[in-house]
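Input record (one chain):
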Amino acid sequence: PPAVPGDDERVVLTTYEGEQVLFDGEGHIREVIRLNGSYTLIEGVTIVNGGGYNVELNGGSHHRVRCNRIGWTGSDATKGDGGTTDSEFLENEFADWSSQAIDLTEVQNVRIEGNVFHHPRTADGNATGSKFGATDVLITKNVFHHTRGLSMGGTSSAHDNPIEARRIVARDNEFHDIGNLVAKLFSCEDCEFVDNDVVRAEAGIYFED
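The corresponding structure, as predicted from the sequence alone:
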């Protein structure tokens, strides 16, 4: 099989020689940054004020969102949809979001690792959501604090999948000072919440058929 390109062979959006770079959608750009195609990388920037999403992974594969600060938006801070596959959210800081920091719908094989999620602007803001047929999502080695937890499955618009999500795995994460549930599993097949550390949460794990 062909070799997987390294970061130097990706289409890259990053800073130049340590500059501080801010992408501000000013509340009226629906997606501040949209990724499609294959082998893309966003790294080391701050992205805020999207009218819809700050970053959207809209189809394609092998997208990487790494070491960014991602803030307020009118909906989800980041969105994976359109059949996106084999993509990663690594070592980002998410704060001040509405709805969900990472919302995954109709995606496959996504890794969420080493991120910090804290202080959404809205009281009902979840850290992550996986629904609408999302499959094979690994949520690992992240820190969640002063936020709601994970939505694994959940509800969405009508679709052809018999269940909301498959094989969503949350493993080796840290949760503290969690408002509401740490995790909710609804219509989630072969999903796991294992080996996580949880301290000071208003509620634990909720299972719903």
